[in-house]
Write a structure and sequence with these properties.
globular; alpha/beta; transferase; 33% helix; 1-phosphofructokinase; ATP-binding; nucleotide-binding; 4-stranded mixed sheet; Tagatose/fructose_Pkinase; 314 residues
Length: 314
């Protein structure tokens, strides 16, 4: 069972249009609404793979009620913590060439009592969890050290922690030695404070995160692939992708695939790459099912192309 924690969940509305024209009245060719937030997406991908998952998240207003109902329809147990503010609604506009424009709302401001209630909800549901995945930005009202406190409490309860966040929240949590952190290329740049132009430089940045406390680093490099750096070494994975439809939630799908495959080693990296590659070929923030995966398209190796220039160097 994988327990997810999403401090700032959302409803994600996606509209597909022929082309985005600023100032014009546009008619969508398709639209959908999905439960959103990085941890929620991890739960959705885990549930789609047929595994049990529980999603801990603050919920408020009619938007929160709809989010809870959508999760239940997907077979996900929503451990909702009532809050006074309304759950945010994010908008994505997708064009046929894969260009995605996102409008993310700020979300409600949590009180100290509400923030503690989320931590307590995790404590009461940690028994039986193989992993706890703590994901996403922190809402207003939560200090950057909130994730560090969550990691510390989870470790005291004997749970393994995967953390997907960035900035001061990531830096603060590293001292509590999360079992896995999952930055993307941009977040790696932010964490080490310098540009990363090659895969080799990304490997070095991941090693620095391990020196700061992370036990393992699973790094998404976009179209260039994914890295896994842990105590046994560094591994690199890529996958063939026919066409990118939407990259919303692809990193979350990757983390779900990694954890569902055990959360360590090259086999788990291959699962992460397969899930991420499948996700970018689906509409909106749809999560892949086993039928969407193509393991034959995935290549993982310890022979990392260190000199390869990143397609989108930061």
């Amino acid at each position: 069972m994988i327990l997810t924690v999403t401090p700032n969940p959302s409803l994600d509305r996606t509209y597909e249009i022929p082309v985005l024209e600023r100032g014009a009245v546009l008619r969508a060719t398709a639209d959908r609404v999905d439960p959103g937030g990085k941890g929620v997406n991890v739960s959705r991908a885990v549930a789609a793979a047929g595994h049990r998952t529980v999603a801990v998240l603050p919920l408020g207003g009619p938007e929160g009620a709809l989010l809870a109902r959508l999760l239940e329809e997907l077979g996900i147990e929503a451990a909702g913590v009532p809050v006074a503010g309304s759950t945010r609604v994010n908008i994505s506009v997708a064009e046929p060439d894969g260009t995605l424009t996102k409008l993310n709302a700020g979300g409600p401001e949590l009180t100290g009592t509400e923030a503690e209630a989320v931590l307590e909800a995790v404590r009461t549901r940690v028994d039986g969890a193989d992993w706890i995945a703590c994901c996403g930005s922190l809402p207003r009202g939560l200090a950057p050290e909130w994730y560090a406190e969550l990691v510390a409490r989870a470790h005291r309860a004997g749970a393994r922690i995967a953390l997907d966040t960035s900035g001061p929240s990531l830096t603060a949590a590293l001292r509590e030695r999360p079992d896995v952190v999952k930055p993307n290329a941009e977040e790696l740049v932010q964490a080490v404070g310098r540009p990363l132009a090659t895969v080799g430089e990304a490997v070095k940045a991941a090693e620095e995160l391990r020196e700061l406390g992370a036990r393992a680093v699973l790094a998404s490099l976009g179209a260039d692939g994914q890295l896994l750096v842990d105590e046994t070494g560094a591994y690199f994975g890529t996958a063939r992708v026919a066409a990118v439809r939407s990259n919303v939630g692809a990193g979350d799908a990757s983390l779900a695939g990694f954890l569902a495959a055990g959360g360590s080693g090259p086999a788990a990296l291959a699962s992460a790459v397969a899930h991420g590659a499948a996700a970018v070929q689906l509409p909106g923030s749809a999560m892949p099912t086993p039928a969407d995966l193509d393991p034959s398209a995935v290549v993982t190796t310890a022979d990392i192309p260190l000199d390869r220039v990143l397609k989108e160097p930061a």
